[in-house]
């Protein structure tokens, strides 16, 4: 081919590109032909149930696991065979992985030394990273003299000190309590704005984190990528019931397509924004879009099972023809009583009809998984590259 006559595409290479990456442990494939592009400067959340392969995908980027097939590219460079410390990726894990016997500044300097950064540059870069994470005043402390949230900031500073092209975050907030978590989430969003060239891959099973921080979300299930899109796309117009149930709570009801493009459920004829696919369908509507009474064009009648008061809303659990339908309605002065007949309505615009009628069989979490903390003997703890030296040294 004549290079002079064929213009080279000028598109920027992806920050991270997984090309058909598979990872196997013995006979079990834990990541199966994973194909994903993360644009430079983008935050991509990997969301999925426990064991779906999220951490494995992250570790394949870091270089802690070697794919059995496929390639990993960072900024257009094939790094599949490259040692972790040569990949330009910083990593933050749930358990902080700080050296307990080193002061904060030494912890942050560790990755720089491991990467042979020029000696005279190290103090400045350590100070810069600590400032960036709000930890400038703590350089001389030991990790045991810091709170969990502060330790996680130090871990973040350590990852940023190497000025990474790619920041890998493995459930960085899951060891923190709810209040700290929301503060750190805001901090991460600020860092993302301040470092627009840094590509972030963020593993979580917390949909709030994914919805808040990510530009796009990749949904994993059973070692495979099953969906990818912006938070709004996945939330408002999910393509599968699994995604619908995993990204935000959803009522998923088994229905049948009707001849007029709508669906039939519990004797009611319901309409959606898009025509129903043929055959059995799953009707998806978010609880906060279901009203008690009201004049929504879609209407269901049932009996109240229970009403939970949650402060600003009441969550109503309603039995509709043997199926439980949830509605989150603004706090009611006089909520209906269990057993009372209620009428629920919702708009066709808020109704999505998904192919397949296996509603409810999607394995979405009812609550966060009760997993052991990293390093305390979880099923995969032995092989995790979560020692301070591995995480910091790359
Ligand atoms: N070193 C290992 N040896 C054997 N199996 C492993 C190893 N590391 C991970 N696995 C298995 O691979 C599968 C995927 O693990 P991975 O940690 O990627 O899941 P995950 O989606 O990040 O889960 P979690 O949300 O629980 O962290 C799991 O079944 C896990 O037990």
From TrEMBL:
Pfam families noted in UniProt: ABC_tran (PF00005), TOBE_2 (PF08402)
Any one GO molecular-function label of the UniProt entry: ABC-type quaternary ammonium compound transporting activity
Region (Disordered) location: 348-394
Family annotation (InterPro entries): AAA+_ATPase, ABC_SmlMolc_Importer, ABC_transporter-like_ATP-bd, ABC_transporter-like_CS, Mo/tungstate-bd_C_term_dom, P-loop_NTPase, Transp-assoc_OB_typ2
Catalytic EC class: translocase
Keyword hit for Lipid metabolism: no
Ranges for domain ABC transporter: 16-247
Keywords: ATP-binding, Nucleotide-binding, Transport
The protein, known as: ABC-type quaternary amine transporter
Naturally occurring in which organism (per UniProt): Nocardiopsis composta
């Amino acid at each position: 081919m004549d290079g002079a006559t064929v213009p080279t595409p000028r598109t920027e290479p992806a920050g991270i590109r997984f090309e058909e990456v598979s990872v196997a442990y013995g006979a079990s494939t834990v990541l199966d032909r994973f194909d994903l592009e993360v644009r430079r400067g983008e935050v991509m959340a990997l969301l999925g149930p426990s064991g779906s392969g999220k951490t494995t995908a992250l570790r394949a980027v870091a270089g802690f696991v070697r794919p059995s097939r496929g390639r990993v590219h960072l900024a257009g460079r094939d790094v599949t065979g490259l040692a972790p410390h040569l990949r330009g990726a910083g990593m933050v894990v749930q358990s902080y992985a700080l050296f307990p016997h080193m002061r904060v500044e030494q912890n942050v300097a560790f990755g720089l030394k491991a990467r042979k950064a020029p000696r005279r540059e190290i103090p400045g870069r350590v100070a810069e990273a600590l400032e960036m994470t709000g930890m400038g005043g703590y350089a001389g402390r030991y990790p045991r003299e810091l709170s969990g949230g502060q330790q996680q900031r130090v871990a973040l500073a350590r990852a940023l000190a190497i000025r990474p092209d790619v920041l890998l975050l493995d459930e960085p907030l899951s060891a923190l309590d709810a209040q700290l978590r929301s503060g750190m989430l805001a901090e991460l969003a600020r860092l993302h704005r301040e470092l627009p060239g840094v590509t972030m891959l963020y593993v979580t099973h917390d949909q709030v984190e994914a919805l808040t921080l990510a530009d796009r979300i990749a949904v994993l299930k059973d070692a495979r990528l099953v969906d990818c899109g912006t938070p709004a796309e996945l939330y408002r117009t999910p393509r599968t019931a699994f995604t619908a149930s995993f990204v935000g709570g959803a009522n998923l009801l088994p229905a049948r397509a009707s001849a007029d493009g709508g669906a039939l459920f519990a004797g009611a004829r319901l309409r959606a924004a898009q025509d129903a696919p043929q055959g059995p369908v799953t009707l998806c509507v978010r609880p906060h879009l279901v009203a008690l009474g009201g004049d929504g064009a879609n209407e269901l009648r049932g009996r109240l099972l229970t009403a939970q008061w949650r402060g600003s809303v009441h969550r109503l659990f309603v039995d509709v023809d043997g199926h439980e339908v949830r509605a989150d309605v603004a706090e009611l002065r006089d909520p209906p009583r269990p057993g009372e007949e209620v009428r629920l309505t919702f708009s066709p615009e808020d109704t999505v009809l998904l192919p397949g009628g296996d509603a409810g069989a999607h394995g979405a979490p009812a609550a966060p998984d009760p997993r052991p903390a990293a390093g305390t003997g979880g099923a995969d703890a032995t092989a995790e590259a979560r020692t301070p030296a591995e995480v910091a040294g790359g």
